[in-house]
Model the fold of this input.
Amino acid sequence: MNTLERNPIADKENDALLWQVLDRYYFEPFRHKEICNEGSTRKTLELFIRGECPSHCTYCYLNRFGDKLYPRECQDEETILNNIDKILEFYVRQKFVCSIEMFSGECIVEGLMPKIWDKMYNCFSKLDMEYRPNSILHPENCDFVEYPEMIDMVQEYIDKFGRLGIRMGFSASVDGKYMDDNRTRVRSKDFYPNLFNFLMKNDYGCHPMVAAHGIEKWIQNYDWWKSDEVPPHISDRLMMLEVRNDDWTKEKIQQYIKFINHVADYEYKNIHHCDNESFMERVFCFDKYPRKGYDNIVLPYRAENRYPGLSCSGQSAMTLRVGDLGIALCHRTSYDKFMGGFFTLGEDGYINGVRAHNVPAYISMLAWDQSCAPYCTDCSFNQTCIGPCLGANYEATNSPFMIHPGVCNLMKAKTTFLVMKYLEMGLFDLGKQKHPDSESWSYWDRMISKFEKGMDGFEERISDRIGNWRVRAEGGNFPEV
Done:
């Protein structure tokens, strides 16, 4: 659990350094709702409850590396519940008001999560409104919807916390009917109807994961999401997140391009009704698509020389591994060698400080951006790419800072394809007419120029790969990509 050797001379300095980093980067914002709940300065506390999950999804890091991300010996119920008490006491004593995220393998059906909710409710109900978190969010596989009595139980907690002014949120980590083969647990015929009723009642959404494993079925799966089986309120807000594992081969990337082409055509025809201007506003991010946290078919642009950090919550959510009070960048980088440290307990049994573990690694990941990343810093795509996942990097290359070439190829292929497609549709010219002052056009012009120089027969390749977009949008055949 803590294998790095301690240097007695540097112990106090490292402990003090870790506390200062946490205090300035997280604890101080945690005390101000106007700071920690705003988009650009948003900071949350993530409680990593357990690293084991019975779903065993093929691509999931908990399935593949869970025992290395979270020591099994500290995942028992008694330890977790005792540490929840300590964390809540620290939260109140420090006058934190930040929202809380609960990340875990399944533990609602198993019974642990309701006990944690009871402790949270008892704690926050005693506080004035100004010292309660705005929300408690759960990314969940929602296995509990298989059991009507458990749906009722969860709803009771949602309503109870709601009366305290705390939104208890769920984001369903559900990939879709044709991706259920990735799971070892078989879902009943009632799972999806029950799930959608639960989500609709509470205005929740889904974040299906688009993995290389099974990518050849994602067009069929996407069409299911858009079918009458799924309420439009849910299907129109899907966050289809690409899984940045190391299994993106050339063949898998080709299947992904077919899929993303299908998505763009469907959205153009059925959501934007073949309105070029409306579609252009969306794909160039001039008009963010309502309530869609991540949009696969857009071409985002970030101003040059403004290097972004991680595209996930790793640098905005302080991850606390509940079983051993370990401090990690995120749940996917909570390997022993990258732990920042651990909270320590005083004689009274409550948190009184920190013990440093690998502070340099923690700070390096907390401060990561594309300007200091191998491959990323000089990459032509770095103003539009979402960047790597540091945990996936480590699993593939043995370094959190070295991206796997397959992931690079995926992101480059995606951007290249969308540029070619939107050129063929005339969206770049239309965008320049409607938004002539946007600084993004010089970037895209340089990118397109590189494509033209680097690809033989670029113009022909556009037509060959994309085909006639209008015919296809109106119901024509889809050519092979």
